[in-house]
Write the structure tokens for this entry.
Amino acid sequence: MDDAESPAPPQAGTRLYTLLHSNEPPDSSEIAVLQSTSSRIDARLDVLDQEITRLKQLTEERALLVSYGIQNKGILSPMRRMPNEVLVEIFGLCVPSVKFDGLWACRFSMRRAPWVFTRVCRLWRTVALETPGLW
């Protein structure tokens, strides 16, 4: 048997099967076979442990690459290249207003527009703060 194979479990009715399912001691002639089988099992476990470690390393590397790939795609986002004038128009459509005595007034809330725009990114903050019509 080479390192690629795992020892087969014993078949019912065999002496090894009986030994595994009872408290009978092995005969002196069986000890060498059992030790050899045990050594082969240990060797195979070592190989599998190495493969598992390598698989964990590959999984970690894949997760890093997926994250890096997402970040790179984010850099290519059309939102990063959108002209400020378009952002101003979109922001203006999102500002909630209420009419009091013929005047439009915004309700104050840090969770609503235009305040929420200032917490998205540096560009959005700059555009929002430099657009008096939002305030």
